[in-house]
């Protein structure tokens, strides 16, 4: 299925034969996940999990609508095994199907044993009461002689048993299974599942096996030679009495509106007029003043959502199929040629038919290539139009499509059955941590900060609306930012009255306390819930209130924060921290001074913060009670629902942490980290000498902390104190990801935390840049070139596209490749060797974009002028001094 359009061709055959669950072998897809085709089929696939794995082996299921509705769970078990479980109409009986791709007969014994051991491990997990089916390419010839295997197979097999043919019956005997293809009598042509390329050799190596208990449920197993997908295997079909049952799932679709229509001036005017008319009609009710906040908000919400529905309409997602009708006709011709092979009576006729089939298959492949080229050219033209219009969002989306990053895949989740239930269970546990056993004693501020506590002004609200970004997902209220920004004057008027009432009563609309949680994968096993983080989709009008509060807080509180922290603060960046740390390491090497660095990693930091402690911290920093009350009320009775595969879990309460996706969250989290570091460092001087009168204890960017010390004792003490203070606020240091780096040290004793040794490292990726204990930037430069090379290769479709102008390609190169390459370059030591390596890579990329050959003999200076590029030495200097 790795060939273009192969999945669509197989889907056509599935529909033609009305197959409920279709097992596929040798898909050559890497990793695991599920994708939905334009025609509605769902593919569950499993392959090699390595990112750079070769496209070999691989297994999959293609599910009909009926099977999708009955699907309970599934599990990827490597490139040779995949498992799915379905609900049936028989009470308390599930249908378990395992698709296999066994090693060929010539593989070594260890490889075969490993396959069957994995299969047995999976089989042991299944209940005996359930119907279990094993099927796939077992590369096993079982033959017609069933001596010694009468309980496992009949006498209807084909050929003679080979080594694999012994292993399969042995496995079936151990698990009380029956090989279906050996039971039902058929003609030879309906038994052979594999045919050699010359059509002279036929074997029965694909099998469907079923548990003995359910043998009578299997009505027939036979080959369907008419199915065609240009494979040397025939379709093996099994008919079952067992019927699948649709699971009762509450599907909740999230409404999204066609906000792109607001780019049209006439549509925008219609939208504005409709909102104004509805607001004028609502104004009479609001003037009566007898509405509570929730009722008033629901009226305002209805005004915006009804206008969106009437003027913009709901957004429909329909991906165009790029295969042409001509290609589909060629596929049908190829299928007819296969029929001619099957119906040939003589070898000569079969050879002729085979030649015609080969030619027809070649015509299909060429036609698919042409269709794909036309599709890419069409996307390229769209990208060029987007570039000309300055629509960078659309240009970026098309770039992702051309790079092959547009497919969204969901992964199966291990550990517990019922994926929706499991996701809710996971995040409910994650976002409701137990309270601290030793809460800190936090003193109140002696003086409250002079921060404006009056109700929000129209100017503040208008400024907050201007700050809102377009193209962001709406929250549970379904109101997009574009709808509010379409008429800022009217929106300001509407929200001014509502926010004023919220401010006075210190009461937040219930819907603003709700959020939809979107799962984002991190590194690691994608079948483990712990390797996902959540972003909360919140009410957009609610964010206007948060922006007003944040703008008032930042100016007054920022001056009270430690200078060591650079995260989420004005005029500070990652680059500042990276440059400082590089200087520290290099100065340590130059002055032969010992240096200990502890790169601290918190576990689920934003989700773990104790809220009761957080409200005390706000008082500690002198924030007025009015603002504290508003913030606290926005968190009280906060509820959440997880989005999974287009469905929403049941709602659950969220009692710990700050909301990821809320404008106030980074600010609130900074206060917690600032207090932790103040308590950790206020009594003992355990840092490095920074000036004759001061020490530098740490470098912080949000929760990415780098503790600094000169001695083992100092670092051990500081690490212990940090761990103790962090725990009081509900934060836990992740021992498995925290790393110790030592430079010019003689003490070999490890740094420990809670009695466990922290792992030491010679280099560490800090804020995206590689820091080495020996100093220098060679390792970081090498890593950046490698990342940029991968980015360049992924965009090769764009560089080849003739429809995209060179200037557009260069813009994409600068934003997608060069930006990756030069990240952190302001901190690099610009030696001639380093500059040459970087410049060589850039020149090579530019020449490929321009399709230059080495025989063209174009100088580098001319190349830079043609592509409007600065020499890399000047580029880095410019970045250092900007």
TrEMBL record:
Instruction: Look up and give the organism this protein is from.
Output: Ridgeia piscesae
- InterPro entries (alphabetical): DNA/RNA_pol_sf (IPR043502), DUF6451 (IPR045609), Endo/exonu/phosph_ase_sf (IPR036691), Endo/exonuclease/phosphatase (IPR005135), RT_dom (IPR000477)
Give the Gene Ontology MF terms in alphabetical order. catalytic activity
- What is this protein called in UniProt? Reverse transcriptase domain-containing protein
Q: Which Pfam families match?
A: DUF6451, Exo_endo_phos, RVT_1
SUPFAM superfamilies named among the record's database cross-references: DNA/RNA polymerases (SSF56672), DNase I-like (SSF56219)
Q: Which PANTHER family match?
A: REVERSE TRANSCRIPTASE DOMAIN-CONTAINING PROTEIN
The signal peptide here is none
Q: Where is the Reverse transcriptase domain?
A: 501-771
